[in-house]
Amino acid sequence: SGHYGRGHDLARGNGNLGDGYYQFQGGKATDLAIGFPEACRRMTRYLGTLGQLDKSSIVLDLGCGEGTPAINMAKMFGCKVVGVDISKNNLAKANRFLSEESSTLNVTFHEANFFNLPDQVSHEIFSHVWAQVSFFHTHAHLKRCINVAADQLTKGGTLILVDYCGPRHPVFTRDTSKSAPDMQQYINCVKEAGFKILIQEDASRHFHAGTSFLRGIAIEEKNELEINFYNGRISSIEENLIGMVIIVAVKE
Fold first, then answer.
1. Of 125, 148, 191, 203, which residue has the fewest beta carbons closer than 10 angstroms?
2. Cα 87 to Cα 64: distance, rounded to the nearest angstrom
3. What is the torsional sign of CA 41, 43, 49, 55?
């Protein structure tokens, strides 16, 4: 966990950690003190458990970013993970982080567009496709992204998806000209791609809790730009303008 820093980079959400998983009582998160990186590891464990990852699993991580969830799921479940991302910078960091881990981890990273996967990826047979906060980067092509996931999965394979949802764009929350698929549209796209949904969960409260933690760091650092950003995001979650959806589905 040496590459988990506290402070400015983490407050900005750098590191592609995803979002955290928290415990709640009376509608409020009770464990924000665990910190954002640990909450994100818990989300990886939660999703992997929902998707029944194990040592026999071969996982395609679409939009792996800097590789943190890929590395963590390999450590937690012993699975093979193939990560794909379009960013050279993300992959350079992912490979550096991987080099700091045990050489027994079966994790590889590839530079590629979702829609033009290299042969060594497209010819692999995957038991799982993992998409963690990656499809929101290309919301206009959501159906196509989910179709890629379906194409790469073996029959009976599992899609594990967690992502931001609309109706507003998760970054430009107050720009009424920018929209994003809402939770029902995600569900519909997954079904239309030939999946049977096993689990659908509104994870917006976890999104809210993690954002509240990051706002706290920004307040400590007196970073007004980030405080305003997180305040806007929190109010948008509370107004149901943005949210987070978890879907686990099996290819029929």
1. 125
2. 10
3. negative
